[in-house]
Amino acid sequence: MPALSLKYSSGLKCKGWDVATVMKEIRRFGLSRFPTPLEPMLQLSKKLGGPEIWVKRDDLTSLAMGGNKTRKLEYLVADALSCGADTLITAGSIQSNHCRQTAAAAVRANMGCHLVLSGEPPADGGVQGNHLIDLIMGASLHWTDRNSRDAMMLTITEECRSQGLKPYIIPVGGSNGVGALGYVNALKELNVQSEQLEINFDRIVFASSSGGTQAGLQLGAELTGFSGRITGISVDQDKLQADSFTSHMAKIAGEAATILGVDSRINPGSFELNTNYIGSGYAVMGELERRAIHLAARTEALLVGPVYTARALGGLIDLVEKSVLLSKERILFWHTGDTPTIFAYAKELA
Ligand SMILES: *Cc1c(COP(=O)(O)O)cnc(C)c1O
Fold first, then answer.
1. What is the pLDDT of residues 131-170, one digit of tens each?
2. Residue 136 Cα, ligand 1 centroid: separation in angstroms?
């Protein structure tokens, strides 16, 4: 396994942290071309009449229709392989982007893949979006209720072992210290692109759910001296769950810092999480999401997905309209993927 090749180590002027020496030691299994594009959204910005809005296209990672889990999986798969594993096991919802990208990563790494999906397989003809791609990728699917997913992953692990296989469990969303390294790296990637374009972002806005993305970005910001605000739009955690969620993210960031061998001052209070846009709950598309999907498509030809990215962009649009985000600011919408899901919501979107 080659060590992480830091294509962007040259020319990167990180403050106080020598990226090249620290990250070079950590193994990464290449699953995509990087950097992902960074683009201005001129027509959307103009339409909203507020700040200049840009988009970081992590929906375009080059792994089976893309998304933010690709960056996490590069580190998770490398870790699995270095443990001698031959089978990946993970869990998620029926339209999980994480499960779809894990199934694809397993193919690329020549590993087996078991996915534990919550709920039941849809009735005749209902196979769509990520679920369809899971099947096409050849993953083995197991169905259970949401609260039994971890137990089922353990059962499958035992079954694999009894067959002489070497399973590796990836937590829901790939959100642990290893996975979060992908977004520490992503923040550095953004710094390089920003420097090349000679621009700065006042704030990054994105969808936050299992916490690895936000934990990685926050740690990356701390380590590289990124000065903008990092605002996670909660996809499913409500106000009452916010404290336990930010504690969870602080734990993930701490694990990542330990792997990197760096000190971090990140604590639960370091995270900015907006819980105002969870609407009727996880995976329930409402007017906020529908409007964001249509607006992004009709101003930028940009597709956002009903579960995550339309909720985050809908929140961003609302914050512009309420003048929380100001015209003098430059905002980055970090597109985390979720586009295959639009096909599963055809009835609501057509
Ligand atoms: C998983 C996911 C997120 C949330 O990322 P976390 O690291 O789980 O918080 C956001 N957007 C999309 C499209 C996702 O699939």
1. 999 999 999 999 999 999 999 999 999 999 999 999 999 9
2. 22
